[in-house]
Amino acid sequence: MHRIFYPQSIVVIGVSEKPDNLARGIIRNLLTFGYRGDLYAVGRQPGEFCGVPILSSLEQVPDGLDLAVILTPAHLVPDLLETCGRKSILRAVVESGGFSEYSDEGRQLEERLMEVARRWGIRVVGPNCISVVNLEAGVCLPFPVISPDSLRLGPASVVAQSGGVSITYLSWLSRAGVGVNKAVSIGNKADLDEADYLGYLLQDPGTEMICLYLESIGDGRRLMDLARSTTRPLIVQKANRGQASQTIALSHTAALANDDHIVSAAFRQAGILRAEGFRDGVAMAQGLALPPVTGDDLVIISRSGGHAVFAADVAERYGFRLAALPDSFRETVRALFRADVIALTNPLDLGVIFDFDLYAQIAEQCLRALAPDAVLLINTYSLTETEGVQKMARRVEQIVRETGRPVAFCAYGEGGDALNLYRDLGMPVFTEIEDALCGLAASRDRQRWLARHGGRGGWESIGSVAEGSRPSSAGVMTAEQALALCRGYGIPVTPWEVAADADEAAEAANRLGYPVALKVLSTQALHKSDVGGVALGLADAADVRRAAQTMLSRFPSGALMVQPMITDGIEVILGGKRDPSFGPVVMFGLGGIHVEVFDDVAFRVAPLTRADAEEMVEEVRGHRLLAGVRGRPPADREALIQALLALSRLLVENPHIAELDINPLFLFERGAAAVDARVVVS
Amino acid sequence: MHRIFYPQSIVVIGVSEKPDNLARGIIRNLLTFGYRGDLYAVGRQPGEFCGVPILSSLEQVPDGLDLAVILTPAHLVPDLLETCGRKSILRAVVESGGFSEYSDEGRQLEERLMEVARRWGIRVVGPNCISVVNLEAGVCLPFPVISPDSLRLGPASVVAQSGGVSITYLSWLSRAGVGVNKAVSIGNKADLDEADYLGYLLQDPGTEMICLYLESIGDGRRLMDLARSTTRPLIVQKANRGQASQTIALSHTAALANDDHIVSAAFRQAGILRAEGFRDGVAMAQGLALPPVTGDDLVIISRSGGHAVFAADVAERYGFRLAALPDSFRETVRALFRADVIALTNPLDLGVIFDFDLYAQIAEQCLRALAPDAVLLINTYSLTETEGVQKMARRVEQIVRETGRPVAFCAYGEGGDALNLYRDLGMPVFTEIEDALCGLAASRDRQRWLARHGGRGGWESIGSVAEGSRPSSAGVMTAEQALALCRGYGIPVTPWEVAADADEAAEAANRLGYPVALKVLSTQALHKSDVGGVALGLADAADVRRAAQTMLSRFPSGALMVQPMITDGIEVILGGKRDPSFGPVVMFGLGGIHVEVFDDVAFRVAPLTRADAEEMVEEVRGHRLLAGVRGRPPADREALIQALLALSRLLVENPHIAELDINPLFLFERGAAAVDARVVVS
Questions:
Q1: Closest Cα of chain A to B73: distance in Å?
Q2: pLDDT, tens digit, 9 for 90 and up, residues B239-284
Q3: Of the four, A239, B256, B265, B502, which is 20 to 30 A from A112 by CA?
């Protein structure tokens, strides 16, 4: 992998002298970005481009080159790769499209390509990709011509399942003052996939954070493990979320959609920051390029009162606290300037000060005297003030470096592109208040995640999906089997007895106490209550006998389950399923309409940590109901958390279980009890 | 008002030769923006600036000038205004700060200023404001120096309760290809307020849409009426929404916070588009500058597959539909180019086409053949392609003009500011997919609102807040009085009888049928159920007698209300209150935890139209429960809507009612019944 990003010799295949030849762009980019290794070009016709001779056959290049970059019609690629193999060129970037993303024929072509690659041990980037970029080594392999001026070296690396998106990220990260280290567009990921690139970049000394754009996630557990194995933040923009994007994603990079709820849950669990789009992805990277934000205390300094008011609204939305300024600070600020028209509030509105030196001084005083977790400095300026603004920005950069504390510098310039003013600055510059606060919040959330999940003596791997022994018979367990399984893992279960006939049922009910519920135990009765397989609130032995007889006449082969009725407690639902990408997943929701109508559920990938279980409970909108409302006592939260952890173990240790629902689990003031469960074995 | 935007003579007061003098900026802006009227400068010391002589006294300027622009220390302003009055200068823009936004002293100064203004009949913009701009007349009064190149004439006018924000809007609207017509920053609105400016701009021929930034809304009903009186769209960014911004908004423009729920509801009701920030405000203006979007059918054309996938996700979020392309269109497109590597899906990914002429042709074919409601054209390009891109953009502009259909052109350029390429273009250019879809959605929502609310023979004024006769005794009505009031307005009410003692109660219960509910009628028992004033589910006469005796022993002066128990139906809550800015407001929510725990409520300003009532019902998250879930029959929607309309009439016609709750109102399969009501009279 290292030699893909640091090749000492490259051959570009598919180059011609024609002006509309695309592969020429690769040669040109390598030259303008200052690539210093050996460079060969191969095409159908001999010739020359930018001083690089075009050889008419791949046979003519030396054996053992580090990297082949192929941009030819798709059908030529397998044979070219065969030649690469023979010549011990064991790394290839295949930029050509027309493979599995396009047609069945293309899929076959891709299989042939991979067969060749595997036979020779060639590692392939793509096919259907455009970029490997390493600004540290002057490597720039996209075919669209890129200006070296538009990119800037920095700490962020990019992995994107779309060439166009990788270029958008390269350009935006550079403009935003973060800068780029390496980038790769992974295309159809026939061989190397996002986890491979991630694994490499997480070890790469030049990479301090990684922005990913994904349209599909193959091995979700591996992605989570990689994210949890590092303190370097991952920002992932996962597209292809809904109905509308599925077809196009399939035809774009052969990407299959994931369950978006589970993707979000897995990201939260693994400390991955999820970006909605390019804009917030880049804003997060900007925030993470600043010194870390370790709490919610924010001071806003603004030159425009309106911007300050708006910023206060947005800060509140992101959960920041605007602490009042202490009197001591007021004194400090008053000493700096005639303060008779400044109200010393937070946000601090400095609208009447026109001396930019003072802004930087106030920001500095603020950091040193108040030590807030972050400062947002909003600057609005007019065309005549650009010099002062640049000076101020440089001073702020210095303050950030000296104090090691985060100042988000947000510039609203009149006209043109505000960022041109700050090209030489060594810190990110925001152009919108929302972006600045999104960035600061991302840094704070990441720090909070590290503190909550990382502080217990290292990382536990979430592990790969266990492949256990599969039972011979797939199907649905009876409620008794399902409840027994749950009880075996320590999930509290309401007591029950099994009865073969009406008399046994009545005797059991006498022992358990009235009122009771009666349920048929039959693997045929999947939804028991829909087919008359459940009778509730039976008040005496006669009731029980009658109900038992009716039920057995409907299900002659079934046995009966007798349970005491539960008359208080809060109903919740626990569930489990196997996701194709993420493996066993635990679900939690409040009972009744909360899950069915409001889709108010939380997911986590198993195994859960205690912190995961706690977060799941907090995540459902209705969690306040557990604290007791309308005069009801609070529910036993600890019992719920233990049940979630037990369910997590159950799912991990029983890979043959495809689905499991505990519905309802009653939570009491003390303790809990599962009343019914449904288990589907695959 | 006209002469404020089109003054033929201006005096700027507060000018000096000193380089740090702020008022000089006003003179300079007027000169560079090509103002052609008479221009005078007044300052303490005589002198000259940019060829304009500085007079040392306001007495020296001619009488009857159209406009005075004042930027001096605050304490000088009242006397200056006095002189203006004497000299028949009857319009003033007061840019100075230090009035009610700053201190109590400032508030007194502002009162003095207004006293002078009223005495002379002077209309005042501000104080504490910076801009009146009219690009049609070369009027540019902000003191920060603005480059005429950075602004562009166009259809959008701006009204902002913050000078800094008005300048951000001016600059962004210009950059985004919309362009600005007029702008005013309203500051403390001591005299003229947002409604005054709106009233003028809605009549102004050059203004086709208006962007407002507000930190407080004074007369909400007038704002709504203005919005409903016009087909010109209003985009309002209402800041000062939460706890954090209140202090700073107060010290910035003396703005008081509004109830944000009600602001949002009123805006929806009046067809006002609410912007969250600058960015979506400008994106909405861009969308509205295109031909109208009249439905949800969208075609996305992209040059990058990744951008297409992301755009499809965002489009779905905004409620757009990506219809499949019919075979006939496939043929048309195939005829234009060798289509063997293009999958003809929607989004259409044209990644392998490098001929920009074709893009425009395909977009045109798409509009003509498919007639979608909108097209999103996403262009990604590299530095070598800028000429082709500009040509394409011009062609797209032409197509939009010819077809009268909206194409959102979204450009992701590599490096630099993409917008520089399109400075001369006569259409908005988006730089992000989210912005483009936000803009198209704003246009669609506006069209939908016009169709839904505007199609019934003109607008009905929502009217000002009625000032009716106040009853002598304020306080809480008894449940009987409250229910009788509701019944009087046609709200269905569960039957009841009033009883003075236990025997009468039992007789009433016999007549009404068991089970019954018993409630104490007392203006002392505000929350009846908390103090033992309610007994439910009484099964027979003995039960009733017992409950009545207990209740009367607690409330010796109270009478008793007997109601039959309602045992089915869906519980909802209707409410009403008086908002200081918006007057009578109707509230709706589902009963129980929906309002209390989930805050799932909808508001509308009374009087409601039928469409308003329908929208309220659809707006609560839980409205699906009304359609019948978990085997329950659907609720009578029409009865609910009639009850909301009746409540609206009740609130409008009884201005002495401060608060009203109908909790619960039961909805049956047919009909409805209010069971309890609470009315607070002010």
A1: 10
A2: 998 877 777 677 666 666 678 899 999 999 999 999 999 999 999 9
A3: A239
Beta bridge partners of A48: A53
Which amino acid appears at position B429 of this protein? V
Which residues, 6+ apart, have CB-to-CB distance to B62 below 8 Å? B9, B87
Quick: pLDDT tens for B331-378. Answer: 777 777 655 556 678 888 887 666 777 888 888 888 888 899 999 999
| Interchain pair B415, A168: CB under 8 A | no
Mean pLDDT of chain A: 89
User: Minimum mean pLDDT among A161-170, A427-436, B363-372, B536-545: which range?
Assistant: B363-372
CA diameter of chain A: 100
Please say if the pLDDT value at position B472 is more than 60.
no
- Whether residues B343 and A251 touch (CB distance < 8 A) is answered with yes
Pull the structure tokens for residue A377.
């400095």
Closest partner CB to A149 (pick from B243, B415, B592):
B415
Structure letter (DSSP) for residue A622: G
| Beta-bridge mates of residue B538 | B516
3-state secondary structure at position A362: helix
Structure-token pair, residue B489: 């307005």
Which chain A residue has the Cα nearest residue B166?
A306
Alpha-carbon distances of A119 from A61, A88, A342, A387, A609, rounded to whole Å: 21, 12, 74, 62, 42
The chain-wide mean pLDDT, for chain B, equals 88
Contacts of B200 (CB under 8 A, 6+ apart): B1, B2, B5
Instruction: Looking at the complex, report in whole angstroms how far the Cα of residue A102 sits from the nearest Cα belonging to chain B.
Output: 7
Q: Identify the H or E element spanning A332.
A: helix A327-336
Is there a contact between A301 and A640 (Cβ–Cβ < 8 Å)? no
Residues 6+ apart with CB under 8 A from A255: A161, A215, A216, A240, A249, B309
Question: What's at A260, amino acid-wise?
Answer: D
Contact B252 A147 (CB under 8 A): no
Residues in chain A closer than 8 A to B322 (CB atoms): 244
What is the number of other CB atoms lying within 10 angstroms of the CB of residue B562?
Answer: 25
What H or E segment, with its residue span, contains residue A214? strand A209-214
Using an 8 Å CB-CB cutoff, list chain A residues near B150.
Answer: 383, 414-416
Q: Which residues of B touch A248 (CB under 8 A)?
A: 305, 308-309, 312, 345-347, 349
Do B575 and B648 touch, CB atoms closer than 8 A? no
Query: Which helix or strand (DSSP H or E) is residue A174 part of?
Result: helix A163-175
